[in-house]
Amino acid sequence: MNRTPIFAAVRHLLARPLREADVRALDSAIDAALELPAPLAVGPAGVALVRRFEGLARLRPDGMVEAYPDPGTGGDPWTIGWGATGPGIGPGTVWTRAQCDARLEADLARHAGEVAEAIGAAPTSQPQFDALVSFHYNTGAIARATLTRLHIAGDHEGAAQEFSRWVHAGGKVMKGLVRRREAEATLYRGES
Fold this sequence. Notes:
Layout: H1 4-14, H2 20-34, H3 44-54, E1 65-66, E2 94-95, H4 97-119, H5 126-139, H6 146-152, H7 156-162, E3 168-169, E4 172-173, H8 175-188
Protein backbone atom coordinates (compact mmCIF):
# COMPACT_ATOMS: atom_id res chain seq x y z
CA MET A 1 0.00 0.00 0.00
CA ASN A 2 1.29 3.44 -0.92
CA ARG A 3 1.29 5.43 2.34
CA THR A 4 2.68 8.63 0.84
CA PRO A 5 -0.73 10.33 0.39
CA ILE A 6 -1.63 9.56 4.02
CA PHE A 7 1.61 11.02 5.37
CA ALA A 8 1.27 14.07 3.09
CA ALA A 9 -2.27 14.70 4.34
CA VAL A 10 -1.18 14.43 7.99
CA ARG A 11 1.77 16.79 7.37
CA HIS A 12 -0.65 19.24 5.76
CA LEU A 13 -3.11 19.00 8.69
CA LEU A 14 -0.35 19.46 11.24
CA ALA A 15 1.27 22.24 9.19
CA ARG A 16 4.68 20.87 10.09
CA PRO A 17 7.05 18.09 9.07
CA LEU A 18 6.51 14.69 10.67
CA ARG A 19 8.88 13.59 13.40
CA GLU A 20 10.23 10.06 13.58
CA ALA A 21 7.80 9.24 16.42
CA ASP A 22 4.90 10.55 14.29
CA VAL A 23 5.89 8.29 11.40
CA ARG A 24 6.14 5.24 13.70
CA ALA A 25 2.73 6.01 15.23
CA LEU A 26 1.12 6.48 11.79
CA ASP A 27 2.72 3.30 10.46
CA SER A 28 1.44 1.38 13.47
CA ALA A 29 -2.08 2.80 13.08
CA ILE A 30 -2.16 1.98 9.36
CA ASP A 31 -0.90 -1.54 10.00
CA ALA A 32 -3.58 -2.09 12.64
CA ALA A 33 -6.28 -0.78 10.31
CA LEU A 34 -5.15 -3.11 7.54
CA GLU A 35 -5.08 -6.26 9.66
CA LEU A 36 -7.76 -8.71 8.78
CA PRO A 37 -10.09 -9.38 11.67
CA ALA A 38 -9.78 -12.74 13.34
CA PRO A 39 -12.31 -15.24 12.04
CA LEU A 40 -15.51 -14.99 13.99
CA ALA A 41 -16.37 -17.97 16.13
CA VAL A 42 -19.65 -18.84 17.74
CA GLY A 43 -19.63 -17.94 21.43
CA PRO A 44 -20.97 -19.82 24.45
CA ALA A 45 -24.46 -18.29 24.11
CA GLY A 46 -24.66 -19.47 20.49
CA VAL A 47 -23.50 -22.98 21.35
CA ALA A 48 -26.02 -23.14 24.19
CA LEU A 49 -28.83 -21.98 21.90
CA VAL A 50 -28.04 -24.61 19.27
CA ARG A 51 -27.75 -27.35 21.92
CA ARG A 52 -31.02 -26.27 23.52
CA PHE A 53 -33.04 -26.44 20.33
CA GLU A 54 -31.30 -29.32 18.60
CA GLY A 55 -31.28 -31.42 21.75
CA LEU A 56 -29.54 -34.73 21.96
CA ALA A 57 -32.59 -36.64 20.80
CA ARG A 58 -32.83 -40.41 20.83
CA LEU A 59 -30.25 -40.92 23.56
CA ARG A 60 -30.49 -44.61 24.46
CA PRO A 61 -30.06 -46.05 27.96
CA ASP A 62 -26.71 -47.52 26.85
CA GLY A 63 -25.45 -43.99 26.06
CA MET A 64 -25.58 -44.43 22.29
CA VAL A 65 -27.55 -41.99 20.11
CA GLU A 66 -29.91 -43.07 17.31
CA ALA A 67 -30.84 -41.17 14.15
CA TYR A 68 -34.41 -39.93 13.78
CA PRO A 69 -36.55 -38.64 10.91
CA ASP A 70 -37.04 -34.92 10.33
CA PRO A 71 -40.01 -33.75 12.43
CA GLY A 72 -41.36 -31.61 9.60
CA THR A 73 -41.28 -34.28 6.89
CA GLY A 74 -41.36 -37.49 8.88
CA GLY A 75 -38.38 -38.67 6.82
CA ASP A 76 -35.51 -36.96 5.05
CA PRO A 77 -33.29 -35.49 6.17
CA TRP A 78 -32.53 -37.97 8.91
CA THR A 79 -30.85 -36.36 11.90
CA ILE A 80 -28.60 -37.54 14.71
CA GLY A 81 -27.02 -36.02 17.78
CA TRP A 82 -27.10 -32.23 17.90
CA GLY A 83 -28.92 -31.81 14.61
CA ALA A 84 -26.36 -33.45 12.31
CA THR A 85 -27.60 -34.43 8.85
CA GLY A 86 -25.93 -35.57 5.68
CA PRO A 87 -24.56 -38.62 3.91
CA GLY A 88 -24.40 -41.74 6.02
CA ILE A 89 -27.14 -40.59 8.41
CA GLY A 90 -30.39 -42.51 8.05
CA PRO A 91 -32.55 -45.16 9.66
CA GLY A 92 -30.42 -47.35 11.88
CA THR A 93 -27.51 -44.91 12.24
CA VAL A 94 -26.08 -45.00 15.78
CA TRP A 95 -23.30 -42.78 17.18
CA THR A 96 -21.56 -42.38 20.50
CA ARG A 97 -22.03 -39.21 22.51
CA ALA A 98 -18.43 -38.30 21.67
CA GLN A 99 -19.18 -38.59 17.94
CA CYS A 100 -22.21 -36.33 18.39
CA ASP A 101 -20.19 -33.72 20.30
CA ALA A 102 -17.34 -33.78 17.78
CA ARG A 103 -19.76 -33.36 14.88
CA LEU A 104 -21.45 -30.43 16.65
CA GLU A 105 -18.10 -28.70 17.08
CA ALA A 106 -17.18 -29.23 13.43
CA ASP A 107 -20.61 -28.19 12.17
CA LEU A 108 -20.61 -25.03 14.30
CA ALA A 109 -17.18 -24.05 12.97
CA ARG A 110 -18.32 -24.61 9.39
CA HIS A 111 -21.56 -22.66 9.88
CA ALA A 112 -19.71 -19.83 11.66
CA GLY A 113 -17.36 -19.57 8.67
CA GLU A 114 -20.29 -19.44 6.27
CA VAL A 115 -22.00 -16.74 8.35
CA ALA A 116 -18.77 -14.72 8.50
CA GLU A 117 -18.44 -14.99 4.73
CA ALA A 118 -22.08 -13.97 4.18
CA ILE A 119 -21.94 -10.88 6.41
CA GLY A 120 -18.48 -9.77 5.35
CA ALA A 121 -17.23 -6.69 7.18
CA ALA A 122 -20.67 -5.65 8.48
CA PRO A 123 -20.39 -4.57 12.12
CA THR A 124 -21.64 -7.53 14.14
CA SER A 125 -21.81 -8.05 17.88
CA GLN A 126 -21.11 -11.47 19.39
CA PRO A 127 -24.82 -11.99 20.25
CA GLN A 128 -25.80 -11.09 16.68
CA PHE A 129 -23.22 -13.47 15.26
CA ASP A 130 -24.33 -16.27 17.59
CA ALA A 131 -27.98 -15.81 16.61
CA LEU A 132 -27.07 -15.83 12.91
CA VAL A 133 -25.05 -19.03 13.35
CA SER A 134 -27.96 -20.74 15.13
CA PHE A 135 -30.31 -19.61 12.36
CA HIS A 136 -27.96 -20.86 9.65
CA TYR A 137 -27.28 -24.12 11.50
CA ASN A 138 -31.00 -24.85 11.40
CA THR A 139 -31.95 -23.43 7.99
CA GLY A 140 -28.80 -23.35 5.87
CA ALA A 141 -30.19 -20.10 4.46
CA ILE A 142 -27.74 -17.40 5.58
CA ALA A 143 -26.64 -16.55 2.03
CA ARG A 144 -30.18 -16.00 0.72
CA ALA A 145 -32.12 -14.70 3.74
CA THR A 146 -33.49 -11.17 3.79
CA LEU A 147 -32.38 -10.94 7.41
CA THR A 148 -28.77 -11.22 6.23
CA ARG A 149 -29.21 -8.35 3.77
CA LEU A 150 -30.87 -6.24 6.45
CA HIS A 151 -28.07 -7.01 8.91
CA ILE A 152 -25.41 -6.00 6.38
CA ALA A 153 -27.35 -2.77 5.70
CA GLY A 154 -27.31 -1.99 9.43
CA ASP A 155 -31.08 -2.44 9.88
CA HIS A 156 -30.72 -4.62 12.94
CA GLU A 157 -34.31 -4.30 14.11
CA GLY A 158 -35.55 -5.22 10.65
CA ALA A 159 -33.20 -8.21 10.64
CA ALA A 160 -34.41 -9.29 14.10
CA GLN A 161 -38.00 -9.21 12.87
CA GLU A 162 -37.11 -11.46 9.92
CA PHE A 163 -36.31 -14.44 12.16
CA SER A 164 -40.04 -15.03 12.70
CA ARG A 165 -40.58 -15.69 9.00
CA TRP A 166 -38.58 -18.94 9.21
CA VAL A 167 -40.98 -21.12 11.21
CA HIS A 168 -42.26 -23.57 8.59
CA ALA A 169 -41.23 -27.16 7.93
CA GLY A 170 -43.05 -29.52 5.65
CA GLY A 171 -45.49 -26.70 4.84
CA LYS A 172 -46.54 -26.33 8.50
CA VAL A 173 -45.76 -23.86 11.25
CA MET A 174 -43.70 -25.76 13.80
CA LYS A 175 -44.01 -24.68 17.44
CA GLY A 176 -40.37 -25.60 18.06
CA LEU A 177 -39.26 -23.35 15.21
CA VAL A 178 -41.41 -20.50 16.54
CA ARG A 179 -39.68 -20.82 19.93
CA ARG A 180 -36.24 -21.09 18.34
CA ARG A 181 -36.72 -18.02 16.15
CA GLU A 182 -37.97 -16.03 19.15
CA ALA A 183 -34.86 -17.07 21.09
CA GLU A 184 -32.60 -16.21 18.14
CA ALA A 185 -34.22 -12.78 17.72
CA THR A 186 -33.88 -12.12 21.44
CA LEU A 187 -30.19 -13.08 21.37
CA TYR A 188 -29.65 -11.04 18.19
CA ARG A 189 -31.08 -7.98 19.93
CA GLY A 190 -28.70 -8.60 22.84
CA GLU A 191 -31.59 -9.06 25.24
CA SER A 192 -30.44 -12.32 26.81
